[in-house]
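quick one, 350 residues, struct below
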Amino acid sequence: MPIFNYDGPIKKYFEEKIRVSNEELKKLKAHCEANEDRIIKELKDNYDLSRNSFENQGSYAMKTLIQEDNNSYDIDDALIIDNDLLKDENGIELSPSEYKDLVLNAINDKRFRKEPQKLKNCVRVYYNEGHHVDIACIRKRFTFSGNEILELASTDWKQTDPKEINTWFNKKITDLNENNKDSGSQLRRMIRYLKKFSRSRKSWNMPCGLILTMLAVENFEYYKRDDECFYWLLKNILNRLLNNGLVVYNLANKSEILTKTSYDADMKEFRDKLNETFEKISMLEKDNCSAKDAREAWEYVFNTNGFFKADEDDLNEKMNIITKGTAWTSSSGMIGLVGLKNMPHKFYGE
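---
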C-alpha cells in the first residue's frame, strides 16, 4: 500500500541531520589509525604487529554511523596478537588484565587531555572533540587440531570473532546490491534512520545499535522511495515484536542471543514507542493525507523540532520570489536574492 510521498524532505533530512560527513569520517579514520600506528611503534619488536593486526568493528566498520550530539562517536577497533607472543619476561602467559595494561601503556601519550582508560572489554582512548576509540584486546591461539580460536581479554578470556558480523553484513549488502543496485545501500540508510528514530528522545530507553541493525536486516524490504521504505520497515519491526516476541538473535551467528531476557525493558519500551508512533502517523496511508499531515507525521517520528516546517517555508519562499520575478540565480545555481535576475515564471497547474 502506498503512502503520501514525502521522499524529498526525508532524504534532505538524512543528508543534513543523519549522515556523517566525509570530512568527519576522515577525521575519525585518522584518529583510529593514529592509535594503531602508536601501538605498532611501541610493540612491533616483541609482538610482530602491522596494520593487519587490527580489525575495525561496529557501525564505523559497517558504515552505519549517524551524527551524534557533541560528536560522541563510539569507534570500535580490535587488536589481535598471537598468544605465543603474549608472555612476560619469565615466559608466563599474560592475563587478560595484563594484556590490556600492555596496550594501555603503548597507547598513552602526554598530549591526551584525558588519559586512556582500561575498561572491562577494551582500552578506551578519549578525544577532545567528544568521540572515543575502543580497542578490544584479542589473543589468537590454535587447538591441537589446528583450529584457530580468538579470545577477548575481558574479566577472563572470552571467545569471540571480531570479523564475524562485518563479514556477514558486507555479504548481505553485496547480495542485495546484486539484485538491485540501490537495495544494499538503502538498507544501510534504513539502519541509520532507525538509529535516529530510537535516539530522537533522550528520555527513551532503547536497544543498542547492534540489536537495531539485526531488526532492520531481518525486516527490510526494498522500496524505490526512502520514506516508504522506512515507514514499512518500522511497521514490519512492530509486527515482528508484537507477534514473535522481543528476543533478538545475532543473524551472523544465530546461536547467539543479543537480548538478555525474553522481556528486556529497552525492548519493551522500543515496541511500545513504535506502537505509539503508528497511532500518530497512520494517516500517511490514507488517500486524503495532506502535505501538512505528512510533515507533522515525520516531524513526530524524528522529533525534529521544526526541520521539515522550516524546509517547507524555505521552498515556499523561493517559489514565491520566482513567481513574482524577484528571484536571482547565483553562480552555483542556488535560487535567492543575489546573482543573475530571473524572469517572472508560472508553474504548471497555476
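The first strand starts at residue 54 and ends at 57.
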